[in-house]
């Protein structure tokens, strides 16, 4: 028998996979918005010395005016490529999410902090994708 607390809580995560198969991710509390996306993109710029081609889905943060302006200002370093609507099968991030959920499914997680630690450990170890 697996003990469960019945408490529900969640975190948000953003990830990207490089052409070399390297997973870059962040886990955070709160709402996923344009500011969070831009912080993640800025962090990515510090990891790569070649232009980044970032595939994004239809989330409103990806289509925000501030994101479009920022991307235009950084066009020499990053380009956003938007997936068609309703195409999760084209988004490798969805595979990471599915693997992560499978990895964590049998763990007894009782706090949001523990969830964050487990997500980070799974992503760093490669167990989630």
Overview of the structural elements:
- This protein has helices at residues 34-45, 65-73, 92-104, 112-125, and strands at residues 12-17, 23-28, 52-56, 78-82.
- It is of the alpha+beta class and 129 residues long.
- Strand 1 (12-17) and strand 2 form a beta hairpin.
- The longest helix has 14 residues, at 112-125.
- The two termini are 27 Å apart.
- The model has no long low-confidence stretch (mean pLDDT 85).
Question: How far apart are the termini?
Answer: 27 Å
Tally of DSSP helical segments? 4
Mean pLDDT over the residues: 85
Uncertain ranges: none
Brief characterization of the structure:
The protein is α+β, with helices and mostly antiparallel strands and 129 residues long.
Question: Which labels suit this protein?
Answer:
single chain; 129 residues; alpha+beta; two-stranded antiparallel ribbon; two-stranded parallel ribbon
List the helices and strands and how they pair.
Blueprint: E1 12-17, E2 23-28, H1 34-45, E3 52-56, H2 65-73, E4 78-82, H3 92-104, H4 112-125
Parallel strand pairs: 3-4
Antiparallel strand pairs: 1-2
